[in-house]
Amino acid sequence: MGYMMSDHIQTGLPAEYMNLKENEWYGRILQAKKQLGQDLLIVGHHYQRDDVIQFADFTGDSFKLARLAEKAEQAKFIVFCGVHFMAETADILTSSAQKVILPDLNAGCSMADMADMEQVEDCWTEVTDLFGGTTIPITYVNSAANLKAFCGANGGAVCTSSNAKKMLTWAFEQGERILFFPDEFLGRNTATALEIPDQQMVVYNQASQTFEWLPGQKPEDVKVILWKGFCSVHQRFHMSHVDSLRKQYPTIKVLVHPECSHEVVNAADLSGSTEFIISQVEAAPPDTIWAIGTEINLVSRLAKAHPEQRILSLNPIVCPCSTMYRISPQHLLWVLETILKGEVVNQITVSEKIAHHARIALNRMLQIA
């Protein structure tokens, strides 16, 4: 079967796919998967909606899926049901013979969008001028490829929510302080776990290009500079939710993602990555009651998989990740049937100039964590 790249990457969903019903798209997706065989790998992030993730060959967090794509050398087409930065990481790690496809180019990440290269470079200049000495940049994997490259080119690295503690420990061995972006809360919660007091952390507000100093705080006090960014999903969990559920269920275990606020993480029984959250539920005895502070699709999926436990969302009215939700079965069907026609749409490509330094940052993480 011969394939060619289309001259124009389409950004919209063709009208013929928009109003397809389940009895129309379900069988066609299965048929397309069967026809493409080993040429195709579909990966789905834990936060992806059920009607899409059911077709995934692998599910996981963003970096795990990128590594699985890297190892699937026989797959010519990696369809990444997630968001843009995740597909970028997969493209960085996979070979030039593989094509990474995002079913909807509008599937982005509000947190990743809170840091761009111009802002980071402006911050870097201010940090260098104000603090002196050595600062190590660490970017959360939830960031654009060029910011991963920035860290690689400036002695820094990438981290995930599961290895952030190891990566910050490593960074302190390399320099006097850390610039952590784009998520303030993962940075603050990880630094606190390393017993770094608030007085040694300062928030950099990229919108106003100012540091948000604590009373009496001086530049020489600072060990961690935190970017003023956040996950719009995880910031919907509040102390009122924790207090309410603890009153209602005295034996409840509160389990949250470290992108949640500092107060919520401190009040929780456990905090950790999506993989950690899943592992805790899977290992728990029957009749355990959980309040889970993370994206609702994952919480609902865990509740269905473990009826022997009582699994609740920490916020009962929390919304799904709106950008992840953009990917629909119709989008998935469209990109698969387009491949069958010999074309590729919505391919995510990272230039080799950026990919080179991004790999350095990613490989530093892999060597350490």
Describe the protein:
This protein has three domains: 15-108 and 323-356, Rossmann fold (3-Layer(aba) Sandwich), CATH 3.40.50; 112-231, Rossmann fold (3-Layer(aba) Sandwich), CATH 3.40.50; 236-313, NadA-like (Rossmann fold). A six-stranded mixed sheet has the order 6-5-7-10-8-9, with helices on both faces. The chain has 15 helices and 14 strands. Mean pLDDT is 93; it is low at 1-10. It has helices at residues 15-18, 22-36, 50-53, 62-71, 84-93, 117-131, 145-153, 164-174, 184-193, 239-248, 262-267, 274-283, 296-305, 329-340, 352-368; strands at 40-45, 58-60, 77-81, 99-101, 135-140, 157-159, 177-181, 201-205, 210-212, 224-227, 253-256, 270-271, 289-293, 310-313. By secondary structure, it is of the alpha/beta class.
Q: Topology, pairings included?
A:
Blueprint: H1 15-18, H2 22-36, E1 40-45, H3 50-53, E2 58-60, H4 62-71, E3 77-81, H5 84-93, E4 99-101, H6 117-131, E5 135-140, H7 145-153, E6 157-159, H8 164-174, E7 177-181, H9 184-193, E8 201-205, E9 210-212, E10 224-227, H10 239-248, E11 253-256, H11 262-267, E12 270-271, H12 274-283, E13 289-293, H13 296-305, E14 310-313, H14 329-340, H15 352-368
Parallel strand pairs: 1-2, 1-3, 3-4, 5-6, 5-7, 7-10, 8-10, 11-12, 11-13, 13-14
Antiparallel strand pairs: 8-9
Helix pairs in contact: 2-14, 4-5, 7-15
